[in-house]
Design goal:
Elements lengths: L3 H16 L5 E4 L5 E4 L4 E5 L16 E2 L5 E4 L4 E10 L5 E7 L6 E8 L2 E7 L15 E7 L4 E9 L4 E3 L1 E5 H36 L2 H20 L2 H6 L6 H24 L2 H4 L1 H20 L5 H29 L4 H22 L7 H4 L1 H48 L4 H19 L4 H15 L8 E6 L6 E8 L2 E2 L5 E3 L2 H9 L4 E3 L2 E7 L4 E8 L10 H55 L5 H28 L8 E3 L1 H16 L5 E6 L5 E3 L1 H22 L5 E9 L2 E8 L28 H11 L2 E8 L3 E8 L27 E5 L3 H13 L3 E5 L2 H8 L6 E5 L7 H9 L9 E5 L17 E4 L4 H12 L10 E2 L1
Parallel strand pairs: 1-6, 22-24, 28-29, 28-30, 30-31, 31-32
Antiparallel strand pairs: 2-13, 3-4, 3-6, 5-12, 6-11, 7-10, 7-13, 8-9, 8-11, 14-15, 14-20, 15-16, 15-17, 18-19, 19-20, 21-23, 21-33, 24-25, 25-27, 26-27
Helix pairs in contact: 2-3, 3-5, 3-11, 5-7, 5-8, 7-8, 8-9, 9-11, 11-12, 12-13, 12-15, 13-15, 15-16, 15-20, 17-18, 18-19, 21-22
């Protein structure tokens, strides 16, 4: 006989099944790993907070979520959610339902499975021991038999923000993910704690409050992130309810207070900006008061006040950073960057939590990366400021000692000249102090000339020049500082004649040449230039050459310090740029590879044109990144090939036509030589495009009527010559002498300023010459000449030397590919299959080794950097297998180059293919591996 309880349960399930008309269904297939439960979820807002499970309306009356995560912000309402799970796999599935925001107060789940209804309650307000799974996250286990279906209703109440990120995991996948994430967070929290402890010990040693505020800020961030991961509830005090909420409030208060106090100390705000200093202190004190109030008042009341104050703290702190940055305070740039990185990271995480950005480890971890960057930059600012203070103190002490010694000696020898010597030393100190504040070479030279004018009473200054030694040659760049006794406001760079440059290089020490004082500016490391002052009137014996030498040394020291700071800045920028460029290579390769695959498929001609444009742009971005990295390493490896100049001109003319024609610029090209040329065609092509792009921009900006550009290939004095001429406004006179120097730009809002420097380095690598002629009326013409370009053979009018067009067939051969990037996998697979190969894919080196041990392959392609096992280790293990001791193995890498040490990839691989690669490059590498001669159109000789 059925009991009354069974009857009640049956009736409840019947009513529930009658209410369910439709809902968000999650289908589980074989090999299921994980899936987000978000967009499409049925949800219901209960503003009365009185609905029970038996009072719920039909699902058809619920709303459907259109974002990845249900996020309602701060609300007093209760939210209900509904979804179904269907196991369509042929095995029993052990699943875990994860609510990955551990600050949710209470979650009631009603699970209808196999005609049984069970209820599970989890949440931050419940004792940790009551959780179904003992874990810092909120987890619910589910077991689904094959073809079994489960319906899940959940009710969420919380005093925190109502954000409900839900993920369904395979149990094994979740364990692997937990292990990996625990390792990452262990490193993250360990680094934060170590930094905090280290600087706290420094504080106890030096008693500088900057270190105390910095350590307390790190401790606050550590507490906040621990709370957001639910660790206090799990590990610190499991039996206390709401402990994570309290610690989170206190941590946010600390995160608002201590950056303000830290900025006030490290940036010297109290001395420079008293009013701003009071505002920083007021925010810090208010945050500490709220931290104390968090122990007394409810969480739902305090969290809004705390977040409001955090926003005020961010605003006031940002104002302080910007103000001190404008003031020119040295450490302000690092503190400002720290605030930017932190704000960007937190903002990205907020957008991801709100569902505006896709749920991914990159966006989820942005806040951690931003705070860690902020921590590192704060530490760097502390170190920088400490070193700067120490250096300035040492320099001042050393200079004071030197000055004191010199004054004592002068007082013993020349008592009668005491007043004059004191004035002279005072001026020297003022000069040295003024030079120490300068950050520009020309400004330092102007400061020195002005103080010289004050010191040397007989000097009637007419003209002053500073001849700055160029880094890339023995030449000098001339800067006219003073003309007819008046200092020039806008100093311009000018070329120095070879005769004058030779005389300046021969100058050894300060001297007088007729009516001109010559002062070589030279430190222990290098010759910086020569300072000249003309129209001197007076007796040679009245000149104090020792003082002139001291001032020259002070100027040299100033220039050396400026160069050192610039080099450090460039090194930091170079390291950051190299990391960014390397990170951009995979998406660039994906764009280029997908577009190139589309061009080899049967699509409309118009789409092919679009795809060709995409390939060209992606190639150009990749080449630009490669050239910048190559330039930073000061290493150009030429890939020479012999081509017909007419074929090359036809090829480059098509590209330049596309560059000029959309802007109404007339373009012409001419070739008057048939001799074959041997050059790095791709680099010369990019150099011409660079020059043409500058010409196009100048013509557009100047709005020249009937704009035109002409490209000419010719032979001059048995040399291959290229002329590119335009009728634009000409190159500004201010940059004539330094056009080919790095970081020179004019009239552009973007660009690195490396374009013409790279062009110059490319021409130099070919042992060629580049020059230009320009004027406002006639435009600009660039002249490129190559003395070693002409090939030994004479090309006839019927011969052509186009770029190679490779085509090979490897039908039936088996290829093993190990690549962790899914997009790259697809590109490589489709390309190999188009060549006739049978492709087998793996995701890491370990899988590749295992598959290769059981199956023979004709060729193996391994990515160098992969999870679990990298390509080099995998290659070594595969080589030890008898099946593949002689199998061609091709390395795939996103790096520009590897070293030639014994551990480099070239020791183990047949060839190395740099990503992103083209279809032709892959065919060439395969042909080399299989010893196949590529079929080409024309006669191509590669060197």
């Amino acid at each position: 006989m059925p009991t009354l309880a069974n009857v009640a349960t049956f009736l409840t399930l019947l009513l529930v099944s009658m209410r369910v008309c439709y809902g968000f269904d999650i289908v589980i297939q074989n090999q299921f790993s994980s899936g987000s439960i978000g967009k499409g979820l049925n949800y219901l807002e209960d503003r009365t907070n009185r609905l029970t499970f038996n009072d719920l309306p039909p699902i058809s009356e619920w709303q459907t979520l259109d974002k990845d995560t249900l996020n309602a912000g701060f609300t007093r309402s209760t939210y209900w959610g509904y979804f179904t799970l269907t196991n369509q796999s042929d095995t029993e599935q052990s699943l875990i339902l994860e609510y990955s925001y551990p600050l949710l107060d209470k979650i009631n789940l009603h699970i209808n499975q196999s005609d049984e209804l069970r209820e599970i309650t989890i949440g931050n307000d419940l004792p940790f021991s009551s959780r179904v799974i003992s874990h810092s996250a909120l987890l619910v286990p589910l077991e689904l038999k094959p073809l079994e279906k489960a319906r899940v209703w959940f009710q969420v109440k919380t005093s925190s923000t109502m954000q409900i990120p839900i993920t369904l995991w395979n149990q094994q996948a979740y364990l692997e993910k937990t292990h990996k994430v625990s390792s990452y967070f262990g490193i993250f929290f360990g680094v934060l704690f170590a930094i905090c402890l280290y600087h706290l010990l420094i504080f106890f040693s030096v008693r500088d409050r900057s270190y105390l505020y910095y350590s307390l800020f790190n401790l606050s961030m550590l507490g906040a992130f621990l709370c957001l991961k639910g660790f206090p509830t799990a590990f610190l005090w499991p039996s206390v309810h709401g402990l994570s909420d309290t610690i989170l409030l206190i941590s946010i208060c600390g995160g608002a207070a201590f950056p303000c106090l830290f900025s006030n100390e490290i940036l010297g705000v109290a001395r420079a900006r008293p009013l701003l200093s009071k505002a920083l202190y007021a925010v810090g004190v208010a945050a500490l008061v709220l931290a104390a109030g968090s122990l007394l008042f409810p969480y739902h009341v305090m969290i809004k006040l705390v977040l409001l104050l955090a926003g005020v703290s961010l605003l006031v702190n940002g104002v302080a950073h910007v103000v001190r940055l404008i003031d020119g305070f040295p450490a302000a740039k690092y503190v400002f960057l720290a605030g930017v990185f932190s704000a960007v990271g937190i903002f990205i995480t907020i957008l991801e939590k709100a569902g505006f950005l896709p749920h991914s480890p990159l966006f989820e971890g942005a806040a951690y990366g931003g705070v860690l960057s902020m921590t590192m930059l704060y530490a760097f600012a502390l170190s920088f400021q400490m070193n700067k203070d120490r250096t300035l103190k040492d320099q001042m002490q050393r200079r004071l000692l030197e000055t004191q010694a010199r004054l004592n000696s002068d007082l013993d020898r020349r008592v009668a000249e005491r007043t004059h010597e004191k004035e002279k030393m005072a001026i020297l100190l003022r000069t040295t102090k003024a030079l120490s504040l300068s950050d520009d070479n020309i400004r330092s030279a102007v400061i020195t000339v002005k103080h010289l004018h004050e010191i040397l009473k007989p000097l009637k200054l007419n003209d002053a020049h500073f001849y700055c030694a160029q880094q890339s040659s023995d030449a000098f760049t001339s800067y006219h500082l003073c003309e007819h006794g008046v200092f020039v406001e806008n100093v311009k760079a000018n070329e120095t004649s070879p005769t004058r440059a030779e005389a300046l290089r021969a100058l050894k020490k300060t001297g007088l040449n007729g009516q001109e004082i010559l002062m070589p500016i030279q430190s222990e490391k290098k010759r910086w230039g020569v300072l000249t002052l003309s129209s001197y009137v007076g007796d040679k014996e009245t000149l104090d050459f020792d003082l002139l030498e001291n001032l020259a040394q002070s100027l040299a020291l100033s220039l050396e310090n400026i160069a050192s700071e610039q080099n450090s800045r460039l090194a930091s920028i170079g390291a950051m740029a190299a990391a960014i460029v390397h990170d951009l290579k995979n998406p660039i390769g994906a764009i280029k590879g997908c577009a190139e695959l589309a061009t080899h498929s049967d699509v409309e001609s118009e789409r092919n044109e679009y795809l060709d444009t995409i390939i060209g742009e992606a190639s150009r971005m990749s080449v630009m990144a490669h050239e910048v990295l190559e330039y930073s390493r000061n290493d150009i490896q030429l890939a020479l090939s012999t081509v017909s100049p007419k074929a090359f001109l036809e090829d480059i003319s098509k590209l330049l036509g596309q560059l000029f024609q959309p802007h109404g610029i007339e373009f012409e090209s001419h070739c008057s030589t048939d001799k074959a040329i041997t050059l790095d065609i791709e680099r010369i092509r990019r150099s011409l495009i660079n020059i043409a792009t500058n010409a196009r921009d100048a013509l557009i900006n100047a709005r020249i009527p009937n704009p035109r550009c002409t490209l000419t290939f010719t032979e001059e004095n048995n040399q291959f010559a290229i002329h590119m001429a335009d009728n634009g406004p000409g190159i500004p006179e201010a940059i004539h002498a330094i056009l080919f120097e790095p970081f020179v730009t004019h009239g552009k809002s973007n660009g690195t300023g490396l374009g013409m420097a790279i062009v110059k380095k490319t021409i130099d690598a070919h042992h060629g010459m580049i020059s230009f002629a320009t004027s406002h009326d006639m435009g600009t013409t660039f002249y490129l000449s190559f003395s070693q370009a002409f090939h030994n053979e004479q090309a006839t009018s019927q011969q052509h030397y186009p770029l190679p067009k490779n085509s090979i067939s490897l039908t039936g051969k088996r290829a093993l590919v190990a690549e962790d990037n899914p997009v790259n996998q697809k590109i490589i697979q489709k390309t190999l299959e188009s060549l006739g190969l049978v492709c087998h894919l793996t995701h890491n080196g370990a899988e590749a080794v295992q598959l290769a041990s059981k199956n023979p392959f004709d060729v193996i392609l391994l990515d160098i950097e992969m999870p679990v096992m990298n390509g080099i280790d995998a290659c070594q293990l595969i080589r030890k297998q008898s099946l593949h001791q002689n199998t061609p193995i091709i390395a795939l890498t996103g790096h520009v180059a590897y070293g030639s040490d014994d551990q480099g990839p070239d020791k183990y691989f047949t060839s190395i293919l740099s990503k992103p690669f083209t279809r032709d490059a892959l065919e060439s590498s395969l042909a080399k591996s299989f010893h196949i001669t590529l079929s080409t159109l024309g006669n191509v000789a590669e060197q």
